[in-house]
């Protein structure tokens, strides 16, 4: 038996996949077929809720929309994107659709613009507070 990392990960993945398939099948086999299953409620009868997690990353203190490179059909295309006003509008709309929405940023938020450098990021604190983030993660 090989002891390398790849074989180990394959074995663990296979075991996990087997458990993921067998467990629901055995649960279905043990249910009373006459019971009606309502997917809108939990076992105790309470209403199910959806949690949304929205993530931003690499915002780089870009206040205004700016040209950004995208690859489309094998070609480089530049489009205006970003900007805190656009982000705020979009995040607000999505949070209104689902109040159980959490917004996180996963890094490179305070680096990348002259205003950020000149104020060591302090100029962005009111903007970021207004965006109502639930969690900031530093770094990349």
From TrEMBL:
Q: Which domain of life is it from?
A: Bacteria
Q: Which Pfam families match?
A: Metallophos (PF00149)
Show where the Calcineurin-like phosphoesterase domain sits: 52-140
- Entry's SUPFAM superfamilies? Metallo-dependent phosphatases (SSF56300)
Q: What is this protein called?
A: Metallophosphoesterase
């Amino acid at each position: 038996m090989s002891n390398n990392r790849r074989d180990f990960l394959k074995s663990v993945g296979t075991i996990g996949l087997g458990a993921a398939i067998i467990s629901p099948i055995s649960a279905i086999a043990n249910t009373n077929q006459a019971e009606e299953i309502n997917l809108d409620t939990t076992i105790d009868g309470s209403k199910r809720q959806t949690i949304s997690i929205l993530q931003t990353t690499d915002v780089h203190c870009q206040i205004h929309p700016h040209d950004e490179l995208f690859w489309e059909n094998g070609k480089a295309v530049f489009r205006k994107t970003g900007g805190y006003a656009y982000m705020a509008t979009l995040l607000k709309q999505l949070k209104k659709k689902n109040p159980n929405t959490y917004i996180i940023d996963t890094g490179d938020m305070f680096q990348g613009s002259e205003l950020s450098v000149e104020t060591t990021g302090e100029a962005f604190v009111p903007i970021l507070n207004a965006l109502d983030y639930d969690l900031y993660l530093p770094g990349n």
